């Protein structure tokens, strides 16, 4: 049971965690901080937070639980600011989409207190945003990945896992490096690839015609190209090594398809397409509701 | 008004056109031909076709309207087979996703009769398949593109346009070359790119972990990778020049993003993402129902 939870960044993600923990009776009081005052006021009137803090320092003072749920690019500064104000018994976790850079920022900002921070990544929710989009069941049945640190005591990891479990999530553990490699492939690369296709077409003189004739395949392939540019710039830069490796593998595979195409090699095209079609056809997305993006 | 419409390929597309024309009172009788007898029997019991033909030759004998709605790879042989059996007043159109290769096949197969063939491409329907998926409103409010031939009389083009209009479609005209360039970009490239990503991940030793952690962004980006391998092999080969040019442009843009990434050039990433995000956010897919793929 958390007495007082500080939620730094009360958007879809932070707000949904607060609602879920309240509904589960796993937290007594929530204090929220964020850059957008109107959003914070909405969060308070919706019962997502009980109090609004004027600064991250004020939010964490007296809190025994701290959730960092802002864009990963803003976490480094936050760790530095909150470090001197953390209670001695405070548990920290985050909801960032990349882990190695967040951990590096936590080590720099928290110093010897880093053992209280158990890095997390809940796999849901970025297409809608803001406290108004938050809901208690966002993480029901969804995966939450923890990438514990050597500095974490087992009891600290268990306590943070219990918090996420109280939101209804399924817990997984892996190393931060493995996390970043996997998400470079299944999330960060598709986002870059969707942004790239839309930008390529939008840059052409006949862009209007292209968009007018695009159908449902284009619609779904490019849905994630409407995602937040700031958030995805931060993620791409934070995970640049793994993402560049994925871009290389992808470009190499596209180039092999191009070679097969120009050689009139229908067999290679067919073999590629049928392997993909079977793998995709056999895949059932995790979780019970998937309208939100990771 | 068509007295007798021959539908060659009674799947989602051919079946939906037959149902729409019947509902509009634009056709008196429909005769169907296809490779799958069980599918044809289903089409007859659903009232999609009134008669079943044993061959394309038999289907077109006495028909004043002919719709080719089979995979584009099968059209060349069909034109050759039906040419000697066409009625003197027969109008022909097709529903193929590529146009230059279909036109070349029509010229070879139909010879001097090619003036009766007005090439078409209705923008809807390939993810579900078979007569059971057909419905009268599939083309309501959807775009149908005609790429008329120099050999077409204006009255022939107008008559074929009226047929598609009777299905509820919105008509557009463009050249076959322009059609193939545009669809290489907005449809054929996304399909190849989705097949390539899924095949790349499925080929890895850790494929199971990747698929387990993939979320809704991956789900939508790769939905079209579950499409028919045969159909997309045919389309890719039929439109190989335009598709290779699109692959080159796409790979070049991905490479520029990779360079920006490794240079830590957040501004270029942000500029690309925000242009794409705005273009995608402003785009409203054409048509009233888009659950089917083009």
Give a written overview of the molecule.
- Two copies of one chain form a homodimer.
- The first copy, chain A, is about 50% helix and about 15% strand.
- The first copy, chain A, is built from twelve helices and nine strands.
- In chain A, helix 5 links the parallel strand 5 (about 90-95) and strand 6.
- By secondary structure, chain A is an alpha/beta fold.
- In chain A, the strands form two sheets. The first copy, chain A, has a six-stranded parallel sheet.
- Chain A starts with a strand and ends in a 12-residue tail after the last helix.
- At the A-B interface, helix 7, helix 8, helix 9, helix 10 and helix 11 of A face helix 7, helix 8, helix 9, helix 10 and helix 11 of B.
Query: What's the alpha carbon Rg of chain A, rounded to whole Å?
Result: 21 Å
Ends apart, CA distance between termini of chain A:
28 Å
What is the quaternary state of this protein? homodimer
Helix content of chain A: 40-55%
Helix-strand pattern of chain A, N to C? EHEHEHEHEHEEEHEHHHHHH
User: Could you describe the largest sheet of chain A, including whether it forms a barrel?
Assistant: 6 strands, parallel
**What structural category characterises the helix and strand content of chain A?**
alpha/beta
Strand content of chain A: 5-15%
Largest interface: A-B, 90 and 90 residues
Spans of at least 5 consecutive residues with low confidence of chain A: 287-294
* Major sheet: arrangement of strands of chain A: 3-2-1-4-5-6
Q: On the 0-100 scale, what is the average pLDDT of chain A?
A: 94
